[in-house]
Amino acid sequence: MAESILQLDGITCDYRLPGGGRFRAVEDVSLDLARGEVLGLVGESGCGKSTLAKLICGLEKPAAGAIGFDGARVERLGLRRRPRALLGIQMVFQNPYASLNPRRRIGRQIEEALALDAAHRWNLSSLLAAVDLPPSAADRFPHAFSGGQRQRIAIARALAAGPKVLIGDEPIASLDAFLQSQIAGLMRDLAAESGASLLFISHDLAVVREIADRVAVMQSGRLVEVGETEQIWHSPAAAYTRTLIEAIPRVDGRGVIPGSPAP
């Protein structure tokens, strides 16, 4: 495998419960992401996928273990500004409207992110074109766009910062089936064009199969299986992985996205 850019070593994360006690959301997770790789992280809702994404971005603090990114250690941000060394990790969230400032034109929001990229890989017009939006979109506010368009804007803003690692935290969950396939493919293609690695988090293994080089399967806070995508699909080692695959609608024996063309 190519050189690793992101390393998770024995990561555990607990949450305090109201009234006392703790809930273990992530337990002893070790995982690497290679440079230029697309890694799919799959599992049912509540299994700890989004918590893991927040840990990688420094939005949560692990109870145990360490996270390394491009030679730096990822620490929880707290009230501090994100260190410049960690600006190379950018995330696209499930709800694009919540992650965009409703009072600012999208062009301005993207330009602010562009200022963070010293390499100047993109400009505003090239990013809008890359996510299939017209130049006039820059002067509009987030409420003027559909859900799929807002997610494209969120992708453009994340790429504007010149990330080395792009994380999609259930970025297609709120979209219809046809848009899910489009947005997943767009993230894969633009990450490759930018030279970024992509960690794509989803509960939909059929979508992940279409874009990922490898797949990591998470259940109840633990990784139960990691492997090449087609190996996971055809010869899953874990019973839980087999359950996920068996739940996918099929056409001619191949898992497909409901509403999408048959392969």
From TrEMBL:
Molecular function GO labels: ATP binding; ATP hydrolysis activity
Keyword set, alphabetical order: ATP-binding, Nucleotide-binding, Transport
Keyword check for Disulfide bond: no
Residue ranges of every copy of the ABC transporter domain listed in the record: 6-245
Organism, as annotated: Brevibacterium rongguiense
The keyword Transport appears for this protein: yes
Family per similarity comment: Belongs to the ABC transporter superfamily.
GO biological process per UniProt: transmembrane transport
PANTHER family assigned to the protein according to its UniProt record, in alphabetical order: D,D-DIPEPTIDE TRANSPORT ATP-BINDING PROTEIN DDPF-RELATED, TRANSPORT ATP-BINDING PROTEIN
PROSITE patterns the record matches: ABC_TRANSPORTER_1 (PS00211), ABC_TRANSPORTER_2 (PS50893)
Protein name: ATP-binding cassette domain-containing protein
Taxonomy of the source species: Bacteria, Bacillati, Actinomycetota, Actinomycetes, Micrococcales
Matches recorded under Gene3D superfamilies: P-loop containing nucleotide triphosphate hydrolases (3.40.50.300)
UniProt xrefs under Pfam families: ABC_tran
InterPro entries listed in its UniProt record: AAA+_ATPase (IPR003593), ABC_transp_ATP-bind (IPR050319), ABC_transporter-like_ATP-bd (IPR003439), ABC_transporter-like_CS (IPR017871), P-loop_NTPase (IPR027417)
